[in-house]
Amino acid sequence: MTRDYTPKHQGITNAQPFETVEDAWFWFIQAQQARIDGARIAAGVGMIPRPCEPIDILQALDGIYRNRKLTMEHMLVLRHYGRRMLPPDPRRVKEIRGYRMWNEALAELAPVLEAKKIIKKQGMFAAWLPRNQTNVVSIDMYREAAE
């Protein structure tokens, strides 16, 4: 009699969506690099259960690219800064164009990932707010308080 030591799938019920589209992108890049390095990617066996697999993010990006909303240059910027695990810094002269392309690409990707519930709903004014700013209150919080 053999025993099965494969991890059990955790299911989608306790999956945690990503906070931002940047978080989802950096996770995707890390998962792809792990796969290239020989890791086996299996759904639901990570430390934090996610509502998707890396291929879901790739397919969303591929659909946007095929609809010609993004160019190959957008893709190269996403790959370059994704591998660095840092978004482009607009204060550096050489990264200003990359910063613009990065934001355009993530702005196109965010609604697709929100619709698939891969990332949390970002709110109406999320694109205008600086990233990782913790003292900003979303307009959605005001709406919920008013109800």
Keywords:
147 residues; 48% helix; globular; mainly alpha
Q: Given the C-alpha coordinates, what overall shape results?
A: globular
Number of DSSP-assigned strands: 0
| Largest β sheet strand count, sense and barrel closure | none
Overall tally of domains: 1
- Euclidean distance between termini CA atoms: 60 Å
Total count of helical runs of at least 4 residues: 5
What is the CA-based Rg, rounded? 17 Å
Summing up helix and strand content along with how strands pair, one would put the structural category as mainly alpha
Outline the low-pLDDT stretches: none
Give the % helix. Answer: 40-55%
What is the overall pLDDT average?
81
Strand residue content = under 5%
Order of helices and strands: HHHHH
Outline of the structure:
The protein has 147 residues and is mostly helical. The chain has helices spanning 21-36, 54-66, 72-84, 96-115, 139-146.
Structure description:
- The protein is mainly α and about 150 residues long.
- It has helices spanning about 20-35, 55-65, 70-85, 95-115, 140-145.
- It has one domain.
- The protein has five helices and no strands.
- The chain is globular.
- The protein starts with 20 loop residues before the first helix and ends with a helix.
- The mean pLDDT is about 80.
Helix/strand layout:
Elements lengths: L20 H16 L17 H13 L5 H13 L11 H20 L23 H8 L1
Helix pairs in contact: 1-2, 1-3, 2-4, 3-4
